[in-house]
């Protein structure tokens, strides 16, 4: 019997993951059965179960793959001189995942899939560990990027790098939540918003933090 090439195995795994992601995005994780996944990818149960034992492994693989790709993008950006600013980097990453990630699934559907992954971690310990590990990796990658901003003179050093990293991650998460809930949220909106915030300057006459004028009675 001829040996199956690694390229063929990788392509088949990709086929299964993309099909499962389309199903989850379209009808929801819990409403999707493995039979739905089999029908979507056009494969037998034996062919699919060779790679994944069930929906939990599929959703964990989708989440792990997403985190790995995002972290790689951030780490690559941290090595650039000068590193891309947050509006450019976040825009590129979100555009990749919301517009090009899954063939046959629109941006809102894929954003809803991401929200489902987040909520599923509340009941699935394995997925929660995957999400926590991915989040920690993203914080590390963003922290390295923040340090690169400082070395390039793009960012002051008076705020902890981890605080900046977590805020940028929260910005991306909030954008994804808006896309999932309301749809029609162009990535350009995020890029323009971040660019506008980055252009702000603090007036020299500004009051110190916490020095709020008293309200009139």
Specify the number of helices: 9
Shape: elongated
**Strand content bin:** under 5%
**Strand-pairing-aware structural class:** mainly alpha
Low-confidence stretches: none
Radius of gyration: 21 Å
The largest pleated sheet is described as: none
How many strands? 0
Order of helices and strands: HHHHHHHHH
Q: Please state the average pLDDT score.
A: 82
Fraction in helix: 55-70%
Report the span from N to C terminus.
88 Å
What does this structure look like?
α5 runs antiparallel to α9 and α6 packs across α8 (161-182). Helix content is 69%, strand content 0%. The model has no long low-confidence stretch (mean pLDDT 82). It is mainly alpha-helical and 217 residues long.
Please sum up the structure shown.
Residues 33-52 bind DNA. The protein has 217 residues and is mainly alpha-helical.
SSE topology:
Layout: H1 6-27, H2 34-41, H3 45-49, H4 55-78, H5 86-100, H6 107-120, H7 125-151, H8 161-182, H9 187-198
Helix pairs in contact: 1-2, 1-6, 4-7, 5-9, 6-8, 7-8
What are the key terms here?
single chain; about 220 residues; mainly alpha; about 70% helix
């Amino acid at each position: 019997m001829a040996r199956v090439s690694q390229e063929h195995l990788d392509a088949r795994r990709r086929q299964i993951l993309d099909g499962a992601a389309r199903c989850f995005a379209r009808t929801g994780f819990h409403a999707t059965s493995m039979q739905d996944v089999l029908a979507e990818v056009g494969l037998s149960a034996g062919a699919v179960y060779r790679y994944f034992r069930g929906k939990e492994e599929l959703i964990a693989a989708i989440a792990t793959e997403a985190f790995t790709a995002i972290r790689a993008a951030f780490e690559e950006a941290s090595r650039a001189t000068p590193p891309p600013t947050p509006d450019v980097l976040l825009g590129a990453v979100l555009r990749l995942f919301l517009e090009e990630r899954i063939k046959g699934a629109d941006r809102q559907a894929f954003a809803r899939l991401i929200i489902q992954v987040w909520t599923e971690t509340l009941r699935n310990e394995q997925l929660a560990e995957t999400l926590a590990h991915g989040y920690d990796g993203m914080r590390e990658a963003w922290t390295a990027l923040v340090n690169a901003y400082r070395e390039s003179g793009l960012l002051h050093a008076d705020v902890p790098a981890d605080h900046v990293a977590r805020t940028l991650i929260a910005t991306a998460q909030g954008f994804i939540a808006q896309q999932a809930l309301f749809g029609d949220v162009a990535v350009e909106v995020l890029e323009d918003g971040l660019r506008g915030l980055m252009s702000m300057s603090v007036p020299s006459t500004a009051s110190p933090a916490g020095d709020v004028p008293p309200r009139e009675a």
